[in-house]
Structures are given as C-alpha cells and as structure tokens.
Amino acid sequence: MITQTAFEGKTILLTGASSDSDIGLGIAQALAQCGARLILVGRRREELEKTRDLLANPAKHSVEPFDLYDMDAIPAWMARLAVAHGKLSGVVHSASVQGYSPVNTIKKQHFEGYFLLNVGAPMALARGLHQRGVAAENASMVLIGSSAGLRGMKGRALYASSKAALVGLTKSLALEFAKRRMRVNCIAPALIRGSKSDQQFAMLSEEQGKALEAIHPMGLGQPHNVADAVVFLLSDMASWVTGVVLPVDGGFVA
Ligand SMILES: NC(=O)c1ccc[n+]([C@@H]2O[C@H](COP(=O)([O-])OP(=O)(O)OC[C@H]3O[C@@H](n4cnc5c(N)ncnc54)[C@H](OP(=O)(O)O)[C@@H]3O)[C@@H](O)[C@H]2O)c1
C-alpha cells in the first residue's frame, strides 16, 4: 500500500513544477502528500514559489530555478543539489515543449528546442543521477512522455517524435542502470483537462472539439491521474518495474 509516509525522508527532484503546469503541480501535490521533500525546478522562480505555497508543509520543499536547455551544466548542478538537499531518491522530468509544428514550418532551431528539452535534458538528468554521491539507494526516474509518442498526430511531428525518442531513452537507461538497482520508467498521458486542453479546444470548432474528446474512450484525464501513476512508479510497490512505458490515457492508444 502507498501510505502518506511512503516518501518520508526521501528527496525528489521534479522538473516542470511551475504552478501553471497542471500536471507538474498535480505531481508535486501528490508526492508532497506522501511525505516527499521536493526540489521544484522550472525557469520562473515566482511560479515555483506558488507551487511550494500550495503544498502541505511548504518550508520542507525547495525552489531551484534552472534552465534545462543548458544540458551540459545539468550534472554539476545536480551534484550541488545533492549536497544542499540530500541524495536524490527520485527524479521526475515533466518539463517539456509542447505545441503544433506543421512539417513545412520546421527549422533547425525548432528541432533543437523540442529535442533539447524533451530528450536531451532527461538524458543529462540521468547522467547527473548516475554520478557518484547524487543518487540515494534504489533511486528511480520517471519521465513524462505522451501518447503522441506512441501514436502519430497530424501537425505534431516535432512533439511526437521527441516523445517517441523518450521511449527509447527510457528503455536504454533502464538497462544501463539496472545493475545499480536504479529504475527508469515513462508515463504516456493523453489529453489532460486544464489550461493546455482549454487552449487546444479554443483553437477548434465545436465539431472538432467533440471529435477530439471522442477519441478518448474514457473522456479526458485529470492531472491527478498522471500524478497517481508517478507516485506508484517511484514507490517501492514498483520495485521490479523498469523500462516500462505506461499509457495513462483512458484507452486512447488501446
Ligand atoms: N497537458 C496535457 O494534456 C499533456 C498530455 C500528454 C503529455 N503531457 C506532458 O506532461 C508534461 C506536463 O505538461 P503540462 O501541460 O502540465 O505542462 P506545461 O504547461 O507544458 O509546463 C511546462 C513546464 O516546463 C517548464 N519548462 C519549460 N521550459 C523549461 C526549461 N528550459 N527549463 C526548465 N523548465 C522548463 C515550465 O516552467 P518555466 O516556463 O518556468 O520554465 C513548466 O513548468 C509535459 O511533459 C507534457 O509533454 C501533457
């Protein structure tokens, strides 16, 4: 059973933790409720502070603004975090670039933007966690992917291919880290209710909106659906689960 003290004494680094990220905030709230001490990461300090203020016991958690595009600086930054806040029992990478990119608009700078944050940053986070003195015993990573990485999506070549690359990254890291009993898993959500889905529906006609909803057999998800899966995969309940891509999508890719 996952209890309210399941993560007591454990430090977990969460990227994409700003209060205006529906999923990031949901993950932070769920982990804090289970007793974790969180390191909240994003670029905007004020948005991270808002998240911290929404958590039970705010003083327990830290705000660490950092630009994850600075991929090569990630391992040394993580080593400093481990000294300041304790060794990491978990890393959750939820930060991401999202959006539409019809293929005739794609240029190198767009490609680099998507792939650096969605693939390069988690690769560097893994490298950072793997260094001496950073990971606590049985540490685990959860990478937030997308159903777009499992099923093609018109107009989303960049986003979808970056999330598909995350699947390959998850499986390869799981194999590379298994010897140290470190686990790496990925969650692939479909459309989650919140500001992102509101923006998406605002761009669509009523008919298109209905069609989008209809391809989710159990309707759209809620941030807590993703957060619950993160809690499970980081917990001891999943101690023999690694290299898995878990769709959290109400049947979207079924
Ligand atoms: N929303 C959905 O329906 C949905 C569906 C499937 C999958 N997902 C996945 O779920 C995750 C969360 O999605 P969301 O919609 O809740 O979040 P979001 O609104 O896209 O938030 C993105 C987060 O990443 C941070 N971020 C962006 N660039 C960064 C950088 N260079 N360095 C550090 N942090 C950076 C942002 O904070 P700053 O701007 O302050 O840096 C923010 O906290 C993403 O991985 C997304 O792909 C979402």
From TrEMBL:
- What SUPFAM superfamilies has UniProt attached to this entry? NAD(P)-binding Rossmann-fold domains
**UniProt xrefs under PROSITE patterns:** ADH_SHORT (PS00061)
Q: InterPro entries, alphabetically?
A: NAD(P)-bd_dom_sf, Sc_DH/Rdtase_CS, SDR_fam
UniProt signal peptide: none
Which CDD domains does this one have? SDR_c (cd05233)
Q: Which UniProt keywords apply?
A: Oxidoreductase
Q: Which Pfam families match?
A: adh_short_C2
**Could you say which protein family the record assigns here?**
Belongs to the short-chain dehydrogenases/reductases (SDR) family.
Q: What is the name listed in the Swiss-Prot or TrEMBL entry for this protein?
A: SDR family oxidoreductase
What taxonomic lineage is listed for the species of origin?
Answer: Bacteria, Pseudomonadati, Pseudomonadota, Alphaproteobacteria, Acetobacterales
